[in-house]
Known about the structure:
This is Cupin domain protein. Keywords: Signal. It comes from Legionella jordanis. The structure is a single chain. By secondary structure, the chain is an alpha+beta fold. It has one domain: Jelly Rolls, CATH 2.60.120.10. Helices cover about 20% and strands about 40% of the residues. It contains two helices and eight strands; from the N terminus they run H-E-E-E-E-E-E-H-E-E. The chain has helices at about 1-20, 90-95; strands at about 25-30, 35-40, 55-60, 65-70, 75-80, 85-90, 100, 110-115. The strands form two sheets. It has a five-stranded antiparallel β-sheet. The mean pLDDT is about 90.
Amino acid sequence: MLRLASFVLLSGLSFLSLAKACETKRELFIENSAAKVWKTTICPQQILPFHTHEYARVVIPEESGVLKVVYASGKEYTFKLKQKTPIFLSQAQGKDSHQDINVGSNVLHVIVVELRNQPDAK
Length: 122
């Protein structure tokens, strides 16, 4: 009986640790007048809330995956992210309210470098 109780307890703890293994979040690294740099973790099938961006950005995915961007207007774009290959996103691409969706089955981690006060980064 003790072994069964131990197994059930350990199984439950393993399940809880798996359930908490992925958390969609943002981790800020740098923020000043020239740039803002953060890492976003997007769990599989997770949707980020509607948001906008004031500046152009460079996005560097830590792993390959697929990110769908859905605008409030109904427009949709799908980005096929290639591991460690930067993507430039213009200021215009971020101005309209949109959601980002990890449509894949793996966690996505992306480093975002926001280019502030850069006249050529539009």
